[in-house]
Amino acid sequence: MTAIRPTEIKLHQKSRLLEITFDNGARFELPCEYLRVYSPSAEVRGHFGIGAKLVTGKEEVNIAEIRPVGQYAIKIVFDDGHDSGLFDWDYLYNLGRKQALFWTDYLDRCREAGVKRA
Fold it and tell me: Looking at the domain assignment, is residue 118 inside a domain?
């Protein structure tokens, strides 16, 4: 784990973006759909990497609530009812840093599965 911590977390519900600024100056705007399909929950990531699930149909998903968890994470409650998995600071920072790579990978997996996005 790194010592990077967020200094500000803002939810922009109209644009469905979570804006996060970290103490090293990095700032990311993470779409709610991106956060939902890359949820750190066992339901999405699988148990110990086995049974990872391609989550689709979340183009319009939004965040209903953000709950702090100690000094190390947040729990995101999505408006589709999904609320498992903790987004720790390292995970959120990694999602921000590698957003283009992860999103391209997601779109490729959707295409391979024959999933059409709205």
Answer: no
| Angle ∠(71,14,104) on CA atoms, nearest 5 | 75
* pTM: predicted TM-score of the whole model, two decimal places: 0.93
Lateral strand order in the sheet of 63-69: 63-69, 73-78, 86-88
**Mind listing the pLDDT tens digit for each residue in 37-94?**
999 987 777 666 666 789 999 999 999 999 999 999 999 999 999 999 899 999 999 9
**By three-state DSSP, how is residue 40 classified?**
coil
Domain count, the chain: 1
Residue 1 placed within a domain: no
Instruction: CATH number of the domain at 80, please.
Output: 3.30.2020.30
Q: SS3 helix, strand, coil % of the chain, rounded to 5? A: 30, 30, 40
Number of H helices, E strands in the chain: 4, 6
CB within 8 Å of 43: residues ≥ 6 apart: 53, 82, 84, 85
Give the residue among 116, 98, 83, 90 at the shortest CA–CA distance from 30: 98
